[in-house]
Amino acid sequence: MSAPGGLPPGYPVPAWARVKDPMPTLPVEYQQLVRGGRYAWWRPLLTLLLCVAFDLVVQVVAGFVVGAIAVLTGTDVSRVVQKLSDTSSMGPLTFSVVIIGLVGLIPSAMFASWIVNGVRPRYLASVAGGFRWRWLLRCLMVTVPVFVIYLVLQFVVDSSTSPRPAHWGILLIMVIIGIPFQSAGEEYAFRGLVLQNVGAWFKNPRIGLIVAIIPSMIFFALAHGSHDPWVFSDLAIFALSSCIAAWRTGGLEASIALHATNNVLLMIATLLFGGWNAAFVSSATVGSPIEPLSTLVVNGLCVALILWQAKRVRLQRLYHPRSLVAGQPVGGNAPRWQ
């Protein structure tokens, strides 16, 4: 068998012919999955920038498509632009562009990591190398009841209602179909990509985790546009709970379940009972101390239940190199359930 590049066996392999495995050679936690054979300090930074560039392209394309549809249907383009820029009145047109831009974060994050780090996109989903659908459903079984009870209690405390928005039926369908993917897009970017790439800068996994959580919280909160301290705290607590869920379960399924449950149920409630436009955070949004406190309690309970379920099913939370899985026992954290 010849060496790489057609060289005879035993001949020294030149640097250009050496292809390093991008995956770690030892079991690692989720936040250090890209710290493999090809790791270099600049790769995580380039990955994050490339993801942003990719998603900007998605948003521009979505804008052009909406504009083209407007022209073909004889709609006033200036009116379309005005609607798209008015996030305080979230109609179907504005809502669709927002959803597309956030859903675009899924392929943007996947391909950015694959191109720069060489790690296959499926490892952005979980340490098991794929999206664990059964585990996602199990997470939803504990998050949905908690949020339903929370929303019912909110309605009992404040039973005031307001008229439904125009086109609420179309918006309801868009929420049910699109918001789970929108939530997944934010988790792939703000949790998956940030945790793995910032965490890779540090050899110590605990230091990497702590440092990576900070920008995940800050970027996620700032991306929503409000600088109100209570709104910022509310979003930061939400991001923190999602980070903990992703770290302790070795993947994004739990954080996606948490995010999607919150967004879908909240939006359905506001569509049916009022408060639709107030459900979206903008630069004008202000909050109160009760909001971060309730988020801490509800999300904390959900995360605790998710971790309890992960322990029950002995969920894989570490990446295990194939060589170890195939040739050696890997201990108590071996793959058990996916």
From TrEMBL:
GO BP terms: namely: CAAX-box protein maturation; proteolysis
Top-rank lineage group of the source organism: Bacteria
- Stored InterPro entries: Rce1/LyrA-like_dom (IPR003675)
Provide the GO MF annotations for this entry: endopeptidase activity
The residue ranges crossing the membrane are: 45-73, 93-115, 135-153, 165-185, 206-224, 230-248, 260-281, 293-310
* This protein's record includes keyword Transmembrane helix: yes
Q: Tell me which UniProt keywords the record has, alphabetically.
A: Hydrolase, Membrane, Protease, Transmembrane, Transmembrane helix
* Ranges of residues in domain CAAX prenyl protease 2/Lysostaphin resistance protein A-like: 171-265
Q: Does the keyword Zinc apply?
A: no
Q: Which Pfam families does the record match to this protein?
A: Rce1-like
Can you say what this protein is called?
A: CAAX amino protease
